[in-house]
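Notes from hallway chat w/ T.B., transcribed later so I don't forget. T.B. wanted the structure written out for a chain they're using in a teaching module, and asked if we could keep both sequence and structure tokens in one place. Agreed to drop them here.
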Amino acid sequence: MTRIQRKKRETILDAALEVFSAEGFRGATLDRIAAEAGLSKPNLLYYYPSKEAVFQELMGGLLATWLDPLKAMDPKGDPRSEIMAYVRRKLEMSRDFPRESRLFANEIVRGAPTLGPVLETDLKTLVHEKAAVIRDWMHAGRIAPCDPVHLIFSIWALTQHYADFDVQVRAVLGHDDPFPGAEQHLETLFARLLGDTTA
């Protein structure tokens, strides 16, 4: 693939991300994606034969990006530092990649027709692997006990909320940037959950 072809594919994927995250899969059309990319529909079809093909490539790249922060949790690290770093990174992703977060949420709400097999294999394996690490930390008395899988679910819910429900958050807060307050709140919340009584 030439540099120009790679650049065109990147342009199409960025346009598709904008359209899918705003319109959902059903509401998105190839015509709309082509217009967003500044291309003709035939030009887009040269690179991707269908809406489904564009969506599948987007979702594949997105899931890899989404899992990287959890993969980075180091079993040899300090438990509180590792978990809090994960919380911060997930919140940063909501701030920096809100379209990607909404696209992922839309896929899950649709029943994960594209990502279902990956969620049941790669994602499940990774979550259980990291839950075992967290459980070991708990058994060693290094952090307070709780259900480690539900801890990970809670981190997802409380960080991705700021991207997926951005309109609601900003309606309540006005035009203030929600992320500094969110970071401080989540730091305190999870520190206390993990047994830091000074937080």
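Follow-up for T.B.: Residues 3-27 form the longest helix (25 residues). Might be a good example for the class.
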